Amino acid sequence: MRVLIMGDMEGVSGIVHWDQVSHGSPMYQEGRRLYTAELNAAVRGARAGGATEVVVVDSHGAGAAGNMGGPAFNSLIPEEMDENCEFVTHHGWANYLDMLQEGCDACFFVGIHAMGLTPRGVLSHTVASGRWLVMRINGQPVGEIGIVAALCGHYGVPMALVTGDDQACREAVELLGEGVGTVAVKKGLGRYSARHISPKRARRMIEEGARTALENLAGAPTFKPGAPVTVSFELVSADVMDGYRRREGIKLEEPNKVHSTGETFLEAWERLAPF
Ligand SMILES: [Zn+2]
Asked: Which domains, ranges and CATH numbers included, belong to the chain?
């Protein structure tokens, strides 16, 4: 059984502030340790649940996502990674599709945050907070959970587990249904505050959640938005809007919305994706 684990930092227990997740900040090193340990917990759980191949993908931009010459998507601590996985770093956001294309049995999204503008979502945003306010798939607001679920769904891969704060978990269940396993490692109290489960216990919960998610894989949802698919963004500024002008296949709705329609999610998404 092959399992793909997408990792993000903002939904990890103990993390509430950009300083803990942004390259160059002194607190970033603490964030990396907390992040790596939660990913390892998911790897252990996946192995216990029967996975024979586990690939972890660092999907956290670390405040430098627009610059692939810089430190983006490279927050895992290699020396501390569990031996029973391989891991992908410094690859564009949600661009690592090899596992999905080759055939993969399940996807986990560990440490994810809620979509942009979620009131109690700790560090909530959608991919690029300096560019996008709200994203929609066929009119339904989605965040990064929805994007990853739709990419997986394109290849017929189910979303088996989502971990993060309570708002990310609620978002996952609302979008994907009760069949998705969730582990809430903190309760969002505001954008920059949370009531945390201690990281050590949170890791045990993730390990257990990962194992059970694979045991219950038959009930895990495969997200397919239908065809055709329209992906829309509400943009934060006229500057960002300007960047989408004169681009083929993109419909503009003044003053700050763009829409892309394709036969598949992948086709619609790839026209708009920033990385
Ligand atoms: Zn992130």
From this structure: 2-124+144-219 (3.40.50.10780)
Per residue in 21-63, pLDDT tens?
A: 999 999 999 999 999 999 999 999 999 999 999 999 999 988 8
Contact (Cβ atoms closer than 8 angstroms) between residue 181 and residue 162:
yes
What number of helices (H) and strands (E) belong to the chain?
7, 12
Say how far apart CA 257 and CA 250 lie, in whole Å. Answer: 10
23, 62 in Cβ contact below 8 A? Answer: yes
CA of 35 to the centre of ligand 1 (A): 10
The pTM assigned to this predicted structure is: 0.96
> Residue 36 C-alpha to ligand 1 middle, in angstroms?
13
Interstrand relation of 159-165 and 181-190 (parallel, antiparallel or unpaired): parallel
Say how many Å lie between the CA of residue 265 and the centre of ligand 1: 22
Residues 267, 59: Cα–Cα separation, whole Å: 21
Tell how far CA 266 is from the center of its chain: 16
pLDDT attached to residue 71: 76
Ligand 1 mean position to 153 CA, how many Å?
21
Considering only CA atoms, which of 248, 163, 227 is closest in space to residue 197?
A: 163
Distance in Å, CA 8 to ligand 1 centroid? 5
- What pLDDT, in 10s, does the model give residues 108-158? 999 999 999 999 999 999 988 888 999 999 999 999 999 999 999 999 999
CA of 9 to the centre of ligand 1 (A): 5
24 CA → ligand 1 middle, Å: 15
Distances in whole angstroms, Cα of residue 198 to Cα of each of 4, 66, 80: 26, 33, 20
